[in-house]
What we know:
The protein has 403 residues and is of the alpha+beta class. The chain has five domains: 2-65, no CATH class; 75-129 and 368-402, TATA-Binding Protein (2-Layer Sandwich); 130-153 and 343-367; 158-232 and 335-342, no CATH class; 236-331, no CATH class. It has nine helices and 22 strands. The chain has helices at residues 2-20, 27-34, 36-45, 54-70, 75-90, 100-112, 135-156, 344-366, 388-402; strands spanning 96-97, 116-120, 123-128, 158-163, 169-171, 177-186, 192-202, 207-213, 219-221, 224-241, 247-252, 256-259, 265-272, 274-277, 283-286, 297-304, 307-313, 318-321, 324-328, 332-341, 370-374, 378-383. The strands form five sheets. Strands 4, 9, 10, 11, 18, 19 and 20 form a seven-stranded antiparallel β-sheet that branches. A five-stranded antiparallel β-sheet has the order 1-22-21-3-2, with helices on both faces. 20% of the residues are buried. The mean pLDDT is 89.
Amino acid sequence: MQFGMALLLIVILCSVAGSLIVQQRSAMEYVTRYGEKQADLILSLGLDHVFSTPWFIAVMILLCLNLTFCSIVRLPKTVRQAKALLHRAGHAAADHSLTDKQHEKLTAFLQQRGFSTRQSGESTVYYKHLFGFYGSFLTHLSFLLLLIVGALVMVTATVTDTTVMPGDTITLEDGTLLTVNAFRIEDETGSLDYTSLLTLTNPNTQRTLSREIRVNEPMNFGPYKVYQQTYGTAGKVLIENLENGAAEEIYLTESCFLTLNGVDGLFYQALYPGYVQEEDGTVTLITSSSYAYHDPVYDVLSVAEGTMTPVLAFPEDEMTLGNVRFTFMEPAAYPGLRIKTIHSELLYALYAVFALMVIGLALCFFAVPTAITVTREGYALHSSKPQTGLMIDIEACLTQEEN
C-alpha cells in the first residue's frame, strides 16, 4: 500500500507538471518562457513531453501491477474475511449481559435497523453490510480500470489540427458545429493570453456550450476535447468591383495573386508585424513577433499592364487597379485548434469506471460490515471497524427499556 501511494504521488506530480508546463514546444520557446536554466532542466527531465517519457510509462506500469495485487490477487482473501466474520460471530460468547426485556428490545431494534439473521446453535447472528468487505476491492479495481481505459482513450483517440478564422464555423464528424467567436493574443493589459472563445452546438441534442479556452485549458464537449494549440495572424483585404458594386473580404494566410481578369491585380507576398523607420526615411520591417500586430505592414506587388510595382501598404490604405479597389484592413489573429475525438464506447466505459469508483468508496466509508451475536444471556458485537455509534445506540435502547 505504501509503495502504491508513492507511485500515485509521482503520477500526481507529473500530471501537475504536464498541466503547468506547455507541452511539445520548441527548445527556444522554453528558453523564452522559463529562462535558460529552467529550460535546460525541463528538457533534460523530459517535462516538455512528460506523459510519453519512458520513466513515466514505467511508473504507470508499476502502478498497474500494484493495483492488480491490491485488488484481483487479494479477492480470495476478501471473500474469506467476509465468511470469517459470520463464522466468528456464530461461535462467539456474549460479552454484554441482557435481561429478558432487554433481549426483546434488542431484537426489535436490530430488525428495525435492517439487520439480516442466521441461526448458529443457540445463538442468533444479526449481520449487515457484509458487502462492505468488497469496498476496498472495488476501489482498487476501479483505479486499475481507470488506468487501462484511460490508456486506451489516449491510444485510440483521433487528433485533428485545424485553423479557424474568427466568426467562421466548421462541422465536426458527427455534425457538431464549432464556431470561433473571437480570438486574442494579448489581454487588456498587453500580456500574452492566447485565448479563443468557442461555441459548440450538437444539432441532434440541441446542446450548446460556449467558453474560453487557453493553452493547457481545453474545452470538453461530448466526445470532443478542443485545445488551444497554436495561433497565427492573417492579412485581410476588402475587394470591391467598381462596375457592379460586388464586394468581398478575403483573409490572406499565404502568398497569392488577387485578380478578376487574370492579368491585372494584387500579388500578396507577406504581412509583417511592424516596422522601424530610420532617420534617412528607410523602413526596416520586423519579421516576427509573438505579440499582436500593433503596426502591421502589407508587402504586396501591384500588377498593371504587365508592370509590377512593390508597395508597402498599411491598414485603411486603398489601391485601385482598373475596375477593382483593394482596401487593406486590420489583420485578424486566428487560433490553431487541436481537436481530440474520443470513441463514444470508451467514453461510456470511462463513466462506468468512475461510477464503480464512487460505489467502492461509498462501501468503504458507509457500509461497515457488522455482526451481532445475540443469546438469551447477552450479546457481542463484531465488526471490521470500531462501531462506537452503534454501541451507543444499543446502550441507549437498553437503558430506555430499563427505565
